[in-house]
Structures are given as structure tokens and as C-alpha cells.
Amino acid sequence: MSCCPSSGFRPPAAAAPALAPGRDVALILPIPGGPAMLGTDAPFFPQDGEGPARTVTLKPFRIDAHAVTNRRFAAFVAATGYVTEAERFGWSYVFWMFVPDGVAAPSPEGTPWWGQVQGASWRAPEGPGSTIADRQDHPAVHIAWNDAAAFAAWAGGRLPTEAEWEHAARGGDARARFPWGQAEPDESNALCNIWQGEFPRRNSAADGFVGTAPVDAYAPNGYGLFNACGNSWEWCADAFRVRSLAAAARKRNAAAAAERERVMKGGSYLCHRSYCYRYRIAARSGRSPDTSAGHLGFRVAYDG
Fold first, then answer.
1. What sign has the CA pseudo-torsion 54, 276, 180, 29?
2. Which end of the chain is more exposed for a tag (fewer CB within 10 A), N or C?
3. What 3-state DSSP class applies to 261?
4. Helix ranges, 234-300 (H)
């Protein structure tokens, strides 16, 4: 099943804003280079290209300790006047539970829990009248890949590669299934911000969150990264591709190439094992670079 629908919108590419002070140096973590594990030999969604496991060699790099917050993204917009893809297009996808009463929100085929809400964007996550005033330290969402790349350039960085993202998320444990190790999160052991209850109708909020959580919620991993899995999906630099010669993979790759899809990692507050078990480190998905929704965010990486 799809984690989020694709907008199909094709705006003209925007020039990246000029380099400006946009990063909090205290929150940038050094990540060692060398051999790094990518993927898994026990894929849950083989059609997504989760496997096979393979070793790649990485140069040392740096990465944000957590996803870019609403406060930080607002500073970027204030400094540059940047307009996000959702704002250009005039709408974004909002999870049905958060759609305001009386607001028309047509759903795309196959994902009835998403509603197309006019006026929804990073600054109005549920549409007109909603606000991020009480979510300054939550991840900026409704962020398309194009938006994330523009911010990263302004901040003097770039989006992480998928290999870098996985390496950082594993926190020094090459075989880790999750940023904290192997333990499976559940309603009595909330290790990350994912769906708790029966998706998509009932969220027990056993962990205290129905939507996004602050970016530094939960314990950091071995390298100091917060919320690498759960809370909000994170864009990577890579084009999405399944490493397989199977007919299904060739078909998926052709569709991904046509849409210019980019890799997303980490899952979100909407993930649940019964529906979208993609809050594992090796899990992955892909969407077009203009796609935005209420669970799409990012963090920034930097050359070592």
C-alpha cells in the first residue's frame, strides 16, 4: 500500500536560495566513514527494493541530529521568500483524521485516508485556520523533495544519500533493525512515534501523540540522531530504484523514472506494522519530487 499519493504536479524548477546562515551548528553530528551496511537480506517489502544487504564505503560526513523544525523552516522562508510546492499548487494531502469539519477533501484512488485539502502547507498543516504556533519544535511537514533540496542548499548542506541516511540511522550497529536496535515498538513500549491502535480508524495515542511529536522526542541513537524512524518521512538525495531484474521491478523502475521519484526513509507517525511497516531502517519508498503531504519532512547532511 502507498504511504502517500503522488501529486503529479510539475512546477518549474526553482533556483536554490543563496547560501545564508541557516543551520544550528550545535545540532550537527559527525558520522564516521568507512564500510557501511545498506539494505537487508530479510526484506519485508521486497517490491520496494529493501534488499539485498550490501556493503558500501562512505566518506566521513555530518548530519543534523534531528529533522528540520517548523521554526527553522520559517527562518528559511523569511530570509529567502521561498514558496513551497504545496503553496504553489494550492493544496496538499492531509490525513483524514485531521481534516477540519466541513472541508471538502477528495481522496485519491487507493488511499481513502488521505484528503486533498486546499490551502494545506507547512505553515497551515491542516489547511486554512490551522497553525504551527504550538508546533515550532515539530518537524516541518508538507515538504516536497524540491523544497528540502532548496533549504539544504541555503543551509550550506545537501540531502543525505540513502546509504548515508541508513549508516547514520544505525548509530554504529551495522545490523540494527531500528535506530535503537532490534526491539519491536508496541503500545506498551513506545520507542518512536508511529501509529498505535487500528489503522486508519483508531489511534490510541498510547505514546501521547496522534500527529507529529517534537523532533527531539524519544532517545537518540548511538550517533545522537533523534527520530530517524517514525514521526516524519525524510527525503534522501537518491533517485528511487529497485535493484532487481524481475519484471515487477522493471515496471516499478520505469514508473519511478517517469515520475522522477526520490527516495524517502524512516516512516512516519502514520506507520503501523499492519499497514506500513516502513519504520525499519532498511525500508524505503519513493515519490515524485513535487509530492507533499502531512507526514513528509527531511533533515540535512553536510560534507565531512
1. positive
2. N
3. coil
4. 247-259
50 backbone dihedrals φ, ψ, rounded to 5°? -70, -25
Q: Is residue 117 part of a domain?
A: yes
Return the bridge partners of 92, or none: 117
Cell numbers standing for residue 153: 542548499
Helices 145-154, 70-80: inter-axial angle, 10-degree rounding: 70
Cβ(233)–Cβ(194) under 8 Å? no
Helix, strand or coil, per DSSP, at residue 88: helix
**CA-based torsion, 181, 182, 188, 194: positive or negative:** positive
Q: How many domains does the chain have?
A: 1
Please give, one letter per residue, the 3-state secondary structure of 23-35.
CCHHHEEEECCEE
CATH number of the domain residue 139 falls in: 3.90.1580.10
**Residue 7 belongs to some domain of the structure:** no
Q: What is the pLDDT of residues 25-52, one digit of tens each?
A: 668 999 999 999 999 999 999 999 999 9
Task: Please confirm whether the linkage preceding 200 is cis (ω < 30° from 0).
Answer: yes
